[in-house]
Design a protein that fits this description.
Layout lengths: L9 E5 L2 E7 L5 E6 L7 E2 L1 E2 L4 E7 L6 E7 L5 E4 L15 E2 L22 E4 L1 H4 L10 H5 L2 H7 L3 E4 L3 E3 L9 E7 L5 H14 L3 E6 L45 H17 L4 E4 L2 H5 L13 H17 L4 E4 L21 E3 L3 H8 L11 H8 L9 E4 L13 H5 L7 H16 L3 E5 L19 H5 L1 H14 L13 E8 L4 E7 L8 E6 L5 E6 L5 E8 L16 E4 L5 E5 L3 E6 L2
Parallel strand pairs: 10-11, 10-19, 11-14, 14-15, 15-16, 16-17, 17-18, 18-19
Antiparallel strand pairs: 1-2, 2-6, 3-4, 3-7, 5-6, 7-8, 7-9, 12-13, 20-21, 21-22, 22-27, 23-26, 24-25, 24-27
Helix pairs in contact: 5-7, 8-9, 11-13
Length: 589
Amino acid sequence: MSHQVKKKLGVTLHAGGAEFRVWAPFAKSVAIEGTFTPNGPIGLQSENDGYWAVLLSDVEAGHNYKYVIETQDGTILHKNDPRARAITSSDKGFSVVVDNAFDWGDDMFMPIPKEQQIIYELHIGTFNRVDASTPGTFTTAIDKLDYLRDLGINMVELMPVTSMAYSNGWGYAPNHIFSVESMLGGRHGLMQFVKECHSRGIGVILDVVYNHFYGDTDLWQFDGWSENGRGGIYFYNDYRGDTPWGGRPDYGRPEVRQFILDNVTMWLNEYRLDGLRIDSTIYMRNTEGFPNDPEHDLPDAWQLMQDITTLAHKINPGALVIAEDFSCTEYITKSRHDSGAGFDAQWELGFPHALRSALGLTYNYPQTLSDINRELLRKYNGNAFERVIFSDSHDTAANGSVRLNQAVTPADASSLYARQEALLADAITLTGPGIPMLLQGAEFVQEGAFNDWQELDWENAVKYSGLVTAHRHLIDLRLNRYDNTRGLQGESTAIFHQDDVNAVIGYHRWNLGGPKDDVLVIVNFGKQELHNYQLYLPRPGTWSVRFNSSWQGYSKDFRELTYDAVTAIEGEMTTIALPAFGVIVLSQE
């Protein structure tokens, strides 16, 4: 069956009515029933290419509907519109006709360059709740945007917000990818959230899931056809359809590819999003989720990933399109012209584990600086900003693990050691090469593991306001707000000192180099204070202390080792004091 890209799929509103179009190539007949069909279902006409359509009068926004599909064996299926922009409830609800009415005001937001971006990973359902029994919504999240802006955050990354199984959860069990979950505030709620972010200079990235659809989705055996008892027209109907979480879409079918690409278009056009993170690209492109495994690779998925990044950048050249891959291959972020997938960046999944191994937090694994050394020097295609780095994400803080601060002292996630080590980890994230990301609540030592029911403890933001201030100071340095740390946005990193006995590492960041540009970061991963510590600094002259993680302004129980500057003499070692689990940031005027 040859395929031309079909326009106007789903619902297209006209003056006084609407056109409905749906793909159901194996259906015997298709009808529609809804609040606008008082006398029973109305049939759709076959367009003889797998699509069915009907033009109806007296249809308007707010009306509910479903498709009534008769299969070849006479079974009647009631299915939601795969492209419904709203669903009354995620599990067994109805599709809703929507319009595009939304007042964007004078919103002309453009994301800042990626070397200046600071991302905050946010789960709408738990970020800011009115009370413990009610999930957070876009509206309650808006109440904390001034806090994020004042912290220095300029990008938020939302965990998935599409209609999902059971209406709650992390969002990674999607069953209606064109509809925004009504429990979170629905379509207009997300638009309002984006508009409010933009008005504060904050861009919005959304997690989207194209590697699987949840098992009970309406897409499953949509028009009654399937092979091998599998998923039918939207899915691979052999072993390629298997993932640990649900059926894998058939990336080889033009209609399925268009379904996914039209979804990308919707997010960037209708919601004015500034970026997308594509979940688990490794499971899109390899049936087993393995890198360097040609036997199980899916070339169709690689081409679709290229199409996704090409389309996204055509719609919004400034969009940040991120892959979650496990391979650390440069081809994820290489240009399509060079056979790459064309992503702007990929999640650096080794980074949080390198921090844990340097802190001695990895079970049955010795404390080592070799992993963090490797992570600080890693680039893709010669570009330090083709990766997103973090000390914690929703994945590292869950799935049998806990947040880093909880791992330090499991009995007390806000102990002295927990606060010192969590600040150390975030200091490396915010001064390291890559686009830094904080998991919600990291800046005030949120306890436990990430889950979809435990609300953020905003009282901690007051109780540990000094730690919040420390993060703000680090972000100020990262953004070069005092014009003396330009190197933190530079491409270059060198390890100038590594002492495995005392667990101390020093790295040098620079853009062009020289005063106000060169930045030195010295980290003591050990629990001992080092008072007369000697090392060679890369440049002579006076180095001013821009950040000292032991400052008592950050916490009254920190053991502060105070000094304002150190002087390096050519060819001689410099003596400094390093706090336990401490970070010192230096630069020159």
